[in-house]
Amino acid sequence: MLKKSLNLEEGSSLAIVVIIMGIVGMFTMVMSSIIISHIKTTHLYKDQKAAYYIARSAAASMVDWIKDNPSKEIKERFGEDSKSTDWTDFDSENKSAGQYKVSVKLISNDDEEGLLITSTGKVGKFEKTIKVKMYLGEGAGNNDTVNLVGIDKVVLSNSNVEGDIVLIGGNEQDAKAPNLNLYNGTTINGEIKVGVNTTADNIEAIKNKFRVKPTKLERIRSYTMPDFPDFPNIRDENKNRELNIGNKDTKTINENGYYKNITINNNGTLKIKADKVRIGRLEMKNGSNIEIGNQVLTEIYIDEEINLKSDAIINKFNKWKNLIIYCKGSTEFKANNSTNNPKGSIIYGSFYSETAPLNLKGTANIIGHIISKKNVIINGNFNTDKSKIVARVIYAPNSKVTLTAKKNEVKYNWGHKEEQKNIFTGAIIANDINISNYKIKLMAKSINSFYDDFDRNFYYSKAYWGSTMMGDN
Question: For the chain, which residues make up each domain, given as ranges?
Fold first, then answer.
């Protein structure tokens, strides 16, 4: 009986041992499966993460390269069609480190104009794609950025605006009601738009002030100055050469060159048939002219000062887009008409001042884009026939632009009173804008023309990183 009991106990112990071993074996298999799965997941996660960093690194490299090259060269290199690299090893010495592919496409439509960079990284079976959009400065081409843009302040008096007013709100992009003022019957045929970070309280304050609810911009706006060009290195060749043109005389410059001083006396004429002329100081007296030849673009570089007397005219008989004047000197550029001669001096071309303020008085005018790092004052009858119809840009994002005129004349038309306002057509972008007695015809397309005209000076400097997309082979 005892022996039988012992045999039963031994058999039970053996069964328990077998069961325990089976459980341990199953547990070991499960744990091994979990560990192997975790190792695989870790490797997959590492592959995904590596693919992401490869895509981002390739995109960042392309962004940096584009930022270092003028927009003109970028447009010429990539053209209208998307350009893409082949799949390229991220590490040429380690083939398993992954690959990348980058494409660049020009964006040009009614809504925006810029570049789209698409970068894809691939490790194993995983791919990650990153998209980046780049714009010229503030993002040229977007309809909500290119009308009357005051970065910090806008004041309008007795004026009519056909188009949108944009008040950025300074560096914080938070527009405030006290910085937008409309006086003496000013009207706006458009919207009021404000910086992307404008608070609800400030939006309500602007709404209560003007009985119009402003619209927020879609993204942050920052306006950069175009690069001021390096002057051509032709100064040392003739550093003391001067040119003096007598009353009613005519002289011609046929080749690129440097002149320490050029003086054109009363009713004298200088004909320029060269692409680049560098001048230390230019003085044009009453009735004098500079005629530009048929060359595609003439650039005049002023080292010190430009001084125009009454009725002095530059480039009257050619297209204004064929001339750009770059002024380096710090002396204020003044142009005005005298009491004896009501005709003002006029430049038919674009004018870029690096350090000198601009001050146009009376009927003096610049028929072309005005770019300035300093203040721009237009005080008078900015109202020639060409001035009314030429769409151009006043661009001074770091400074103040002032357009003022005498109170407008009232004329009778079939028994009705009509106020004759001075007219500006195009776009104005400045830190501080003050306009009185003007009719502003804002044209969004003029800013695109402006960026095209100065595409050697602007860079795709603003990059906006989009979402990351994942895929597998």
Answer: 40-136+462-472, 148-453
